[in-house]
């Protein structure tokens, strides 16, 4: 598949980048990749199952705080802390998913938001543990197991993030193409029909939410040792909003789109907010433009063009009108 | 709550809470409770302005206006400017809602209505969210980052005594105005032809259109009305809270919680919801302090789990 | 033993008796049409059998088992598949994928999160089989939204067939179809039903369709059965002719 080739090249380029980039840019890029992972995790919900979430920051914050706590209090090796943080996020996500999938549509979105806000409030309630508004500072990157420590430097950490991102992407892609993923498509297209065919759609939706939280938690867990701290803003609704915008603009339902969208826009944000005060205005207007004119997002457009080229070849089929995710 | 502050298992166990209780007992307990109730009522009044607009818009358009909180904020800022220009609070009560309502109608006509053909609920959510972002940035650009306030107008300053407890006159004004607005809105919806039209469109727009009414116009009008209500809430809130940049985000969540609890599209639901949430907030903050925020969400969670359509609302 | 048996089945909505003490027996391999004027209770009867409504009185037996009052998804598990009056499909997915997903619902591998090549392959085979039966194979790669209304109805039937049901219940399959589309649909249905392993109940208003497809006919009027028997006999029945057929056919 041509797309696979392109991706392989991109990953290769990504792997070689640190050798040429100044340290500052490498840091921005690392954060971009973390955010790209975060956006991809949300795409599983929004793009593939049409579960709009306004509270995905909860996944990010959970991962970040879990990792921060394990690293600062227990000083366990970084890879182990990452795994544990993801597991913690997955566990907490189960009751959240259970409650949220009791409703659909706007109620679902509001419930996810409620949980994120609840998390935010909990941080202040238990400030002895979480550090309250100060958060947790000085998060280390302990070496190990077996003494491996290449992730302690900037370049090393970049590779760690890249590895996690690529791995998560491949895993998500496999899930989306599996029998399970096919049912998600059905739920997205017509949930009532899926139910009448005999599928327990609620269980499928719950699983998707938990998976999305897992990947989002990984992103958060990667963020805490990267930035060196975890703070309550990670749970704030604007974070949820931002990542949702990334998914839509990048291209919901493509996995790739949100990754690149997330990384690219984070990069843009860093660069432009230095220059102009007006970045949020531009960003918001851009988003409105996309919602109105290009709801399939950047990658949705690209994917559509590629598909059309394939179909132009003999033997190709037609394309449904408005084939947006 | 339970022993984590080391004061025993009483829910009022924090040192600060204990002192407050003693004071209350020393003062007039009845008066205290009454003033807290009045507090809650004035809070409910403010919330009602926002929630009623939100539920009206949803009822007729099935649009979730995520920008509603920012519109409330816009009302506060515009109100401030009107007072700064004319020196009249009354003028701001009239001018700000009209201006913001008109702006809302323009937004609906030019941008929102493009989404109707698509029938995708998510798109509305996204569009109004984008509006919220753009609007709040715009406000920041125009009015600056610092909180602004023209203060409580002279005529409404001062306190009244409720069973020997002081209570701000302005809050009494809020309660009365909120009551008046609720009654007026109810009368409008139930007793006037326009209100009948609105209710008809919310139930069966195709039928109403077939009978010759321009449903698009009704939608635009209702959106404007909803925005005007929210803006009025902002104008009223500003003297108490000042106009500041985070006020939109705080309140939109409150408003959604109210509308979900009361039921989306239900006017009565928005009233009941406002009262419920206000009382939970006021009394919750007093008894449970930092958990009060959580209480509201727990309330919403509870309602959604038991009755997914809200207490009084239609299912989506 | 009949595959489906209704004994004294009734459903009341307040004072309105929608279905009134209906007795019915359908043998395996039979094609039964249920006809009657609007409001006769046909859709309510369907809903009672498939578990969307609970009966006010009476019982429903399927292959000897008592399925009265069971929830819809459980009844579906017994092998009863049903289509609705309004077309329900997965619009952006191809016709084949629509049917494949239907087939997958009965496959034990439907929960596989990774890989699942085996599941995907065998359900695709079932889908192609069902599409072939409904003569929709040439349209397999077309998104469902792009099919004609008639083909969409047939696609729904294909989805139902792909689940290998023991009983297929079609609720007004030709509703909203033009004359050509109806002929096309009936031809396909007839071909699909040849072979006799499928048992089918059909609610229909179009008498031509009924007489082309049905072995037996049950006539409902105001909730109770006024005639029941082989198609030709019912057609000739004067009671039925007066109440419903109006002699125009």
Describe the structure.
The complex is a heterotrimer of chains A (325), B (316) and C (249). Chain A is mainly α and 325 residues long. Chain A is built from 13 helices and no strands. The two termini of chain B are 38 Å apart. The two termini of chain C are 34 Å apart. Chain C has helices at 42-50, 72-77, 95-104, 117-133, 149-162, 179-193, 207-213, 231-236, 238-245, and strands at residues 4-13, 16-26, 31-35, 57-62, 65-66, 80-82, 167-171, 199-203, 216-221, 224-230. Chains in contact: A-B, A-C.
Structural class of chain B comes to mainly alpha
- Low-confidence segments of chain A, given as residue ranges, are 315-325
What series of H and E elements makes up the topology of chain A?
Answer: HHHHHHHHHHHHH
Poorly predicted runs of chain B are 1-13
Major sheet details of chain B? 2 strands, antiparallel
The number of domains of chain A: 1
Q: Could you name the CATH topology of chain A?
A: ABC transporter involved in vitamin B12 uptake, BtuC
- Shape label of chain B: globular
What percentage of residues of chain A falls in helices of 4 or more residues? over 70%
The total strand number of chain A stands at 0
Distance between the termini of chain B: 38 Å
Portion of residues in beta strands of chain B equals: under 5%
Average pLDDT across residues of chain B?
82
Helix content of chain B: over 70%
Largest sheet composition of chain A: none
Write a compact overview of the structure shown.
With 316 residues, chain B is mostly helical. Chain B has helices at 15-26, 29-61, 68-86, 89-110, 121-143, 169-191, 193-203, 205-210, 215-241, 247-262, 267-288, 292-306, and strands at residues 159-162, 165-168.
Q: Mind sketching the topology for me?
A:
The complex is a heterotrimer of chains A (325), B (316) and C (249).
Chain A: H1 2-16, H2 23-49, H3 57-74, H4 78-100, H5 105-125, H6 127-130, H7 154-176, H8 179-196, H9 201-227, H10 237-250, H11 256-275, H12 279-293, H13 297-312
Chain B: H1 15-26, H2 29-61, H3 68-86, H4 89-110, H5 121-143, E1 159-162, E2 165-168, H6 169-191, H7 193-203, H8 205-210, H9 215-241, H10 247-262, H11 267-288, H12 292-306
Antiparallel strand pairs in B: 1-2
Chain C: E1 4-13, E2 16-26, E3 31-35, H1 42-50, E4 57-62, E5 65-66, H2 72-77, E6 80-82, H3 95-104, H4 117-133, H5 149-162, E7 167-171, H6 179-193, E8 199-203, H7 207-213, E9 216-221, E10 224-230, H8 231-236, H9 238-245
Parallel strand pairs in C: 3-8, 3-9, 6-7, 7-8
Antiparallel strand pairs in C: 1-2, 1-4, 4-5, 9-10
């Amino acid at each position: 598949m041509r797309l696979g080739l392109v991706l392989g090249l991109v990953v290769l380029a990504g792997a070689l980048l640190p050798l040429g980039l100044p340290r500052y840019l490498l840091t921005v890029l690392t954060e971009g990749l973390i955010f790209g992972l975060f956006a991809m995790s949300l795409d599983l919900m929004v793009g593939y199952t049409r579960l709009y979430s306004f509270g995905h920051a909860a996944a990010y914050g959970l991962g970040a705080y879990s990792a921060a706590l394990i690293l600062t209090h227990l000083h366990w090796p970084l890879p182990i802390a990452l795994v544990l943080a993801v597991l913690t996020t997955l566990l907490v996500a189960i009751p959240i998913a259970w409650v949220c999938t009791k409703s659909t549509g706007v109620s679902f979105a509001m419930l996810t938001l409620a949980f994120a806000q609840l998390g935010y409030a909990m941080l202040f309630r238990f400030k002895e543990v979480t550090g309250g508004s100060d958060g947790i500072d000085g998060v280390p990157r302990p070496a190990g197991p077996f003494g491996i420590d290449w992730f302690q430097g900037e370049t090393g950490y970049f590779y760690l993030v890249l590895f996690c991102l690529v791995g998560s992407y491949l895993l998500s892609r496999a899930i989306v193409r599996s029998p399970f993923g096919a049912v998600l498509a059905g739920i997205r297209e017509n949930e009532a029909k899926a139910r009448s065919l005999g599928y327990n759609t609620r269980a499928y939706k719950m699983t998707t939410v938990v998976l999305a939280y897992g990947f989002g938690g990984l992103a958060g867990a990667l963020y805490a040792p990267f930035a060196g701290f975890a703070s309550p803003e990670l749970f704030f609704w604007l974070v949820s909003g931002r990542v949702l915008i990334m998914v839509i603009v990048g291209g919901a339902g493509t996995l790739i789109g949100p990754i690149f969208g997330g990384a690219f826009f984070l990069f843009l944000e860093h660069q432009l907010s230095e220059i102009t005060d007006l970045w949020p205005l531009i960003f918001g207007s851009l988003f409105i433009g996309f919602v109105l004119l290009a709801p399939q997002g950047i990658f949705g457009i690209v994917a559509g063009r590629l598909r059309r080229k394939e179909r132009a070849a003999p033997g190709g089929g037609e394309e449904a009108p408005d084939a947006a995710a | 709550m339970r022993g984590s502050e080391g004061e025993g298992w009483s829910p009022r166990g924090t040192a600060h809470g204990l002192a407050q209780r003693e004071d209350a007992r020393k003062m007039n307990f009845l008066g205290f409770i009454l003033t807290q109730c009045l507090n809650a009522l004035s809070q409910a009044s403010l919330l009602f302005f926002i929630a009623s607009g939100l539920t009206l818009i949803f009822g007729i358009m099935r649009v979730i206006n995520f920008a509603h909180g920012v519109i409330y904020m816009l009302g506060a800022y515009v109100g401030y400017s009107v007072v700064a220009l004319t020196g009249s609070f009354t003028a701001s009560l009239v001018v700000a809602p009209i201006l913001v309502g008109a702006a809302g109608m323009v937004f609906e006509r030019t941008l929102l209505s493009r989404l109707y053909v698509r029938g995708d609920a998510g798109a509305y959510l996204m569009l109004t969210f984008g509006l919220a972002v753009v609007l709040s940035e715009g406000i920041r650009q125009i009015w600056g980052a610092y909180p602004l306030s023209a203060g409580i107008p002279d005529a409404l300053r001062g306190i009244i005594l409720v069973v020997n407890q002081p209570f701000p006159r302005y809050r009494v004004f809020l309660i009365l105005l909120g009551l008046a607005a609720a009654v007026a809105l109810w009368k409008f919806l139930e007793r006037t032809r326009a209100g009948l039209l609105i209710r008809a469109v919310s139930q069966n727009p195709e039928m109403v259109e077939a009978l010759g009414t321009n449903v698009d116009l009704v939608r635009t009008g209702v959106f404007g009305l909803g925005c005007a209500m929210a803006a009025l809430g902002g104008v009223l809130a500003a003297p108490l809270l000042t106009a500041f940049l985070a006020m939109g985000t705080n309140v939109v969540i409150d408003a959604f919680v109210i509308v979900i609890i009361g039921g989306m599209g239900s006017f009565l639901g928005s009233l009941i919801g406002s009262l419920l949430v206000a009382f939970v907030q006021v009394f919750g903050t007093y008894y449970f302090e930092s958990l009060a925020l959580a209480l509201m969400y727990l309330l919403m969670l509870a309602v959604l789990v038991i009755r997914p359509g809200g207490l009084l609302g239609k299912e989506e | 033993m009949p595959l489906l048996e209704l004994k004294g089945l009734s459903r009341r909505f307040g004072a309105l008796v929608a279905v009134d003490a209906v007795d019915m027996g359908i043998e395996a391999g039979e094609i039964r049409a249920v006809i009657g004027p609007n409001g006769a209770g046909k859709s309510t009867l369907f809903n009672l059998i498939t578990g969307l409504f609970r009966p006010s009185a009476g019982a429903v037996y399927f292959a000897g088992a008592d399925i009265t009052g069971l929830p819809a998804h459980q009844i579906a598990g017994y092998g009863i598949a049903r289509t609705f009056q309004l077309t329900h499909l997965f619009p952006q997915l191809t016709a084949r994928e629509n049917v494949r997903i239907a087939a997958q619902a009965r496959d034990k591998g439907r929960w596989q999160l990774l890989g699942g090549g085996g599941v995907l392959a065998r359900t695709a085979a079932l889908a192609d089989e069902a599409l072939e039966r409904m003569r929709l194979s040439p349209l397999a790669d077309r998104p469902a939204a792009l099919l004609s209304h008639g083909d969409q109805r047939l696609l729904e039937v294909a989805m139902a067939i792909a689940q290998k049901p023991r009983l297929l219940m079609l609720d007004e399959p030709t509703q909203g179809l033009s004359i050509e589309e109806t002929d096309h649909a009936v031809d396909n249905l007839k071909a699909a039903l040849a072979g006799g392993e499928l048992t089918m109940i059909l609610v229909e208003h179009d008498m031509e369709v009924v007489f082309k497809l049905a072995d037996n006919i049950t006539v409902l009027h105001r909730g109770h059965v006024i005639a029941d028997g082989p198609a030709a006999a019912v057609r000739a029945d004067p009671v039925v002719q007066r109440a419903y057929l109006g002699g125009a056919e």
